[in-house]
Amino acid sequence: MTPTLSAKAVRKVDADELATYREVVRSGLADGDGKASPLHAFVLASPVIDESVGMIGAATADGSPLGRVHLSQEIHVRRAIRPDEPVTVALDVVGTRKSLKGVQVAMKVALLGEDGEQFAELITGAMLVGAVTPDTFGQLPPHPGKGSTAEPTVVTRSIARETVTKYAYASGDLNPIHLDDNAAVQAGFENGVIAHGMSVLAVVTEEVIDRYAGGDADRVKSIGARFSSAVSPETPLEIVLQQDEKFVRFSCKTPTGPALKSGWVELGE
């Protein structure tokens, strides 16, 4: 059976939702510039991305629930999301690959404004743990992140337990592993609740905006990273930033290992 490869939906977000999300991801920092976070493109598209699992017919051999692991994310933006604008979210599954762990899937999502013009693109990599279908098809896009030899700036941050909860509601990602210790332990996270991977990426992005973009979120043109391991609340995050012309390369680790790899934020004028 050939899986359905495309989906489309129209979504919108209001000014309060944009402001609340930006406030949450800037927890511990000074007030921002009042503009939308460039990561809100992912927040808007995430319900459609989540639905893609059923769309491609992914399933385990015994019918048990699939595990989902976010492997990588790219966000390319031409402009910020506008309050109350109807946005068409157009998703294409561009490839899958079967492995011993399950099925790896790659998706591209275009965001089109009310005028029909594309203003953002997302490239998402995920592992459907335990999946035995669908079969391999298409291509998995290579992750374009790379290292840097530039002088590093090292920043230490952490994400409070309260902020993890706030992020869950601001982003709409209410997976119990981010809200309930017992659910997290049952899922294999022995220390309980974990932070959202995208919240860690947002923390790094806000540091880059403040340090290299003059506090102007609209200067961000693209963001990307590979997710490596879970981050517990209150855990120190060592963020290494290296500026290469218009790119700020980064990595992020906790005392137990890497959290984000091969990351970048691209800045425009």
From TrEMBL:
Specify the domain of life of the species encoding this protein.
Bacteria
Give the residues annotated as coiled coil.
none
Xref: InterPro entries = HotDog_dom_sf, MaoC-like_dom
**MaoC-like domain location:** 155-246
- Family membership: Belongs to the enoyl-CoA hydratase/isomerase family.
Protein name as catalogued: MaoC-like domain-containing protein
Which source organism? Kibdelosporangium phytohabitans
